[in-house]
Protein backbone atom coordinates (compact mmCIF):
# COMPACT_ATOMS: atom_id res chain seq x y z
CA UNK A 1 0.00 0.00 0.00
CA UNK A 2 2.94 2.34 0.65
CA UNK A 3 4.09 2.09 -2.99
CA UNK A 4 0.79 3.49 -4.27
CA UNK A 5 1.11 6.49 -1.96
CA UNK A 6 4.62 7.21 -3.24
CA UNK A 7 3.41 6.90 -6.84
CA UNK A 8 0.48 9.27 -6.22
CA UNK A 9 2.79 11.81 -4.55
CA UNK A 10 5.18 11.67 -7.52
CA UNK A 11 2.33 12.27 -9.95
CA UNK A 12 1.09 15.16 -7.80
CA UNK A 13 4.52 16.78 -8.03
CA UNK A 14 4.58 16.43 -11.81
CA UNK A 15 1.06 17.80 -12.27
CA UNK A 16 1.75 20.58 -9.80
CA UNK A 17 4.83 21.66 -11.73
CA UNK A 18 2.92 21.51 -15.01
CA UNK A 19 0.17 23.70 -13.59
CA UNK A 20 2.73 26.16 -12.18
CA UNK A 21 4.46 26.38 -15.55
CA UNK A 22 1.20 27.44 -17.19
CA UNK A 23 0.38 30.26 -14.77
CA UNK A 24 2.20 32.94 -16.84
CA UNK A 25 0.28 31.91 -19.95
CA UNK A 26 -3.02 32.00 -18.08
CA UNK A 27 -2.25 35.43 -16.56
CA UNK A 28 -1.29 37.05 -19.86
CA UNK A 29 -4.42 35.72 -21.56
CA UNK A 30 -2.58 34.03 -24.44
CA UNK A 31 -4.39 30.76 -23.92
CA UNK A 32 -5.51 28.42 -26.65
CA UNK A 33 -8.14 25.74 -26.19
CA UNK A 34 -5.70 22.85 -25.90
CA UNK A 35 -3.69 24.53 -23.16
CA UNK A 36 -6.81 25.48 -21.25
CA UNK A 37 -8.32 22.01 -21.54
CA UNK A 38 -5.11 20.23 -20.50
CA UNK A 39 -4.72 22.58 -17.53
CA UNK A 40 -8.26 21.84 -16.37
CA UNK A 41 -7.69 18.09 -16.71
CA UNK A 42 -4.39 18.27 -14.83
CA UNK A 43 -6.01 20.36 -12.10
CA UNK A 44 -8.79 17.78 -11.75
CA UNK A 45 -6.26 14.94 -11.39
CA UNK A 46 -4.23 17.06 -8.95
CA UNK A 47 -7.28 17.61 -6.72
CA UNK A 48 -8.26 13.94 -7.00
CA UNK A 49 -4.74 12.90 -5.94
CA UNK A 50 -4.85 15.20 -2.93
CA UNK A 51 -8.20 13.72 -1.92
CA UNK A 52 -6.74 10.20 -2.17
CA UNK A 53 -3.72 11.14 -0.06
CA UNK A 54 -5.86 12.83 2.60
CA UNK A 55 -8.17 9.80 2.85
CA UNK A 56 -5.23 7.51 3.67
What is the element layout, followed by pairings?
Elements: H1 2-28, H2 33-55
Describe this structure in words.
This protein is mostly helical. Helices cover 89% and strands 0% of the residues. The protein has 2 helices and no strands. Helix 1 runs antiparallel to helix 2 (33-55).
Mean pLDDT: 89
Q: Return residue spans where pLDDT drops below 50 for at least 5 consecutive residues.
A: none
Rg is 13 Å
The helix/strand class is mainly alpha
Distance between the termini: 10 Å
Topology order in helix (H) and strand (E) letters: HH
Care to count the β-strands?
0
Number of continuous helical runs: 2
Name the overall outline: elongated
Helical content, roughly? over 70%
How much strand content do the residues show? under 5%
Characterize the main sheet: none
Structure keywords:
56 residues; mainly alpha; 2 helices; elongated
Structure described in brief:
The chain is built from 2 helices and no strands. It is mostly helical and 56 residues long. The radius of gyration is 13 Å and the shape is elongated.
